[in-house]
Amino acid sequence: xxxxxxxxxxxxxxxxxxxxxxxxxxxxxxxxxxxxxxxxxxxxxxxxxxxxxxxxxxxxxxxxxxxxxxxxxxxxxxxxxxxxxxxxxxxxxxxxxxxxxxxxxxxxxxxxxxxxxxxxxx
Length: 122
Known about the structure:
The chain is an alpha+beta fold. The chain is built from 1 helix and 9 strands.
């Protein structure tokens, strides 16, 4: 009987632990046209995100780079924010999950190429 009770308690604790560890993942949808993103600035709350990037008739593959503001060289890119593969013309791609803390970031596409736009996490 003690083993049965211990087993049930372990199962209940495991379920509660798994539910407590689930994180909400939100999707940020972005669109690129020739030489620009249509979203010029983004404000988000701290959390975990997937970036979905649409290539709207750019005419060639595009990508996505997210980096801390003022640190845009490749060494500082947030690698999980890269799209998982280049986004072909008139298709949509996505990044892996990215957890963002408060601060200022920039996003851009070196393949398109686009200006650097501001992403603020409050």
